[in-house]
Amino acid sequence: MARGVGVTACRLASAGLLLAAGAEAHAQALPLGAVLAASVAVQTAADPAPGTATPTAGNSLVITAAPPPPIAYAVAQPGEQLDSKPLDAAPAEPLAAPSGHAAGDRYEKFNRSMYKLNLTLDRLFFRPLSVVYKAIIPKPIRLALRNILTNVGEPLVFLNDLLQLKPGRAARTLGRFTINTTLGLGGTIDVAKGEGLPHRNNGFGNTLARYGVGPGPYLFLPLIGPSTLRDTLGDQAQGLIYPLAIGEPFDRWDYMIGRALVLGLQQRIETDAQFKMITRTAADPYATIRSLYLQDRKVEVEELRGRKQRSPLDDPLTDPGDPGGDTTSDDGETSHGPAANVTPPEQLPAPPR
Predict the structure, then answer these.
(1) φ and ψ at residue 136, rounded to 5 degrees
(2) How far is CA 286 from CA 106, 152, 272, 276, in A?
(3) Potential cystine with 229: which of 121, 147, 216, 286 (Cβ 3.0-4.6 Å)?
(4) How confident is the model at residue 71 (pLDDT cuts 50, 70, 90)?
């Protein structure tokens, strides 16, 4: 504080000297620069050395103190604009540039662009198509088609249960497949769910994770949605088993496209309320979807390794903008969530796999 007051006093004194010298120069019609030079020369010659004692009349001593360090300033020329900081100021250190992506999302710029593309495709095609599909096809038929395609994939779940050395899970998957194939009329009715054997998603991505393969970078892919490099490669490998091992109809494009449409549209219908909530309330819907996906996948992998955890997706998603109420999804499960008077957003993300 004392140092600041001293520097301020010195600057005021210097300003006073300059104003006095300027006034004298104006009175004598001399250039200000010449007056400043002459003043400095006279002061240098007349002033004693700093720190010396000078005798005066009356047997008193006058001690001359060392002047404060000089501060260099530039004199602006007409029409010139100078920087306000002193000339001898050190340049500031440049700030470190941010990484530009969140942890685990090294391709965030690409992923966000694909997310926006999916929003556009969803707004123009997928959501309108799901609305038409829901309006035209009765709910029992839609559920029957979904159950049949899900039941066809149960042997792949069974295979991955065995590869993950989970005999108990493999036995339950086999029991579910047997019950639904026989009592469920070829899988059209999910009888096993009522017997305590619900469907579980399991694939090569989980098997790779079971044996220590890391997730790799996060990816948001067109028509697929959130994923990781490990899960993407695992899904592609698993998708080749039926076409290569069985052949028709699994190797035909019409079957593959039809299966993707039926499952995708039904999932789009069932998750519509949840994604409405995310896109309407989340500050960054992309980051919210990424966080939910990565957390849920982490829980699944930890459970495969014998560490039971609670999935963040176990909690019901509600829309704070709605007055409340119960909503029933197409699978017959009732959840406490948004009412039906929510205006659908213009853009909705593609549903996660």
Answers:
(1) -90, -45
(2) 14, 32, 16, 13
(3) 216
(4) low
- In angstroms, the CA 318 to CA 12 distance is 66
Evaluated on CA atoms 194, 250, 224, 330, the torsion sign reads negative
Q: Give the HSE-up count for residue 330: Cα atoms under 13 Å, Cβ half-sphere.
A: 25
Residue found by looking up tokens 């309320």 in the block: 273
Angle made by CA atoms 122, 126, 130, in degrees to the nearest 5: 135
Three-state DSSP class for residue 221: strand
Look at residue 134 and tell me whether its pLDDT is greater than 50. Answer: yes
Distance CA 305, CA 196 (A): 23
Token representation of residue 172:
């339950």
Q: Which amino acid is at 74?
A: A
Each residue's pLDDT tens digit, 93-124? 333 334 567 788 999 999 999 999 999 999 99
Burial 102-139 (b: 16+ CB within 10 A, else e): eeebeebeebbebbeebbeebeeebbeebeebbeeeee
What value does the mean pLDDT of the chain take?
74
Residue 100 pLDDT:
64
For the entire predicted model, the pTM comes to 0.60
Cα–Cα distance measured from residue 330 to residue 133, given in angstroms and rounded to the nearest whole number: 13
* Pairing assessment for the beta strands 60-63 and 53-56 based on DSSP bridges: antiparallel
Angle at 352 between CA 144 and CA 215, to 5 degrees: 125
pLDDT digits (tens, 9 = 90+) for 145-191: 999 999 999 999 999 999 999 999 999 999 999 999 999 999 999 99
